[in-house]
Design a protein that fits this description.
Blueprint (H helix, E strand, L loop, with lengths): L2 H4 L5 E4 L5 E4 L5 E3 L2 H17 L1 H6 L1 H20 L1
Antiparallel strand pairs: 1-2, 2-3
Length: 80
């Protein structure tokens, strides 16, 4: 999966007509994702973030966004 797609902040996820999960970054920019790889990426990023207490104290909103994206991705995966 492209590194540029991994670092984007997605607002939500949906399943397109082909059955592929797509991430919505903005209303006009939507990206097809490999949901298994992206889910593992989010889990790893959250765990690294939580292990760094300084980062958690400085960027609590960033951690909340990552957890929200993982929750939304899991909901989209459950619909498949």
């Amino acid at each position: 999966m492209n590194e540029q797609l991994l670092d984007k902040t997605y607002q939500n996820f949906y399943i397109n007509n082909e059955g592929i999960i797509c991430g919505i970054e903005t209303p006009k920019s939507r990206w097809k994702l490999d949901h298994i790889q992206y889910k593992n990426y989010l889990k790893n990023r959250i765990s690294r973030f939580e292990n760094n207490k300084v980062a958690v104290a400085m960027y609590p909103d960033k951690l909340a966004k990552l957890k929200k994206m993982l929750k939304q991705l899991n909901a989209a995966i459950a619909k498949i």
